[in-house]
């Protein structure tokens, strides 16, 4: 895994959340305008808003977990590899359990 050092945030948490929410509102307003002008179908607008909601959710999750992510990245590579190995083993075990139930 490549070493990554993120710069300290220059803006407060509230400011970052406000920017994310403003972008979502701009997307919604733009989509409504495009649909009303018949330049975009309603289904396409809904799909775009769903995808933008997923992106916003990801941004909010990253903001909420910023300190934990920084701690994870600061951990030694060997320790991260051990944890990831256990996760791989757990995924394989869960998959086998689901397959055995499905039979």
Description:
With 103 residues, the chain is mostly helical. It folds into 2 domains: 12-64; 75-103. The chain has 4 helices and no strands. The model has no long low-confidence stretch (mean pLDDT 86).
Briefly characterize the structure.
With 103 residues, the chain is mainly alpha-helical. Helix content is 80%, strand content 0%.
Low-confidence stretches: none
Total domains = 2
- The sequence of SSEs as H and E is HHHH
Tell me what portion of residues adopts beta-strand conformation: under 5%
Bulk shape: flat
The overall pLDDT average reads 86
Distance between the termini: 38 Å
Number of alpha- plus pi-helical segments:
4
Largest sheet: none
DSSP E strands, number: 0
What structural class is derived from the secondary structure elements?
mainly alpha
Percent range of helical residues: over 70%
Describe the SSE topology.
Elements: H1 13-36, H2 42-64, H3 66-74, H4 77-102
Helix pairs in contact: 1-2
Q: Which descriptors would you attach to this protein?
A:
103 residues
């Amino acid at each position: 895994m490549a070493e990554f050092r993120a710069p300290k945030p220059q803006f407060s948490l509230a400011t970052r959340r406000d920017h994310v929410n403003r972008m979502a509102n701009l997307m919604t307003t733009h989509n409504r305008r495009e649909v009303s002008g018949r330049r975009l179908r309603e289904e396409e607008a809904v799909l775009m808003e769903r995808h933008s909601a997923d992106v916003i959710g990801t941004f909010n999750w990253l903001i909420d977990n910023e300190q934990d992510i920084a701690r994870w990245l600061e951990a030694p590579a060997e320790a991260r590899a051990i944890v990831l190995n256990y996760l791989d083993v757990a995924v394989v075990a869960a998959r086998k359990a689901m397959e055995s139930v499905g039979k």
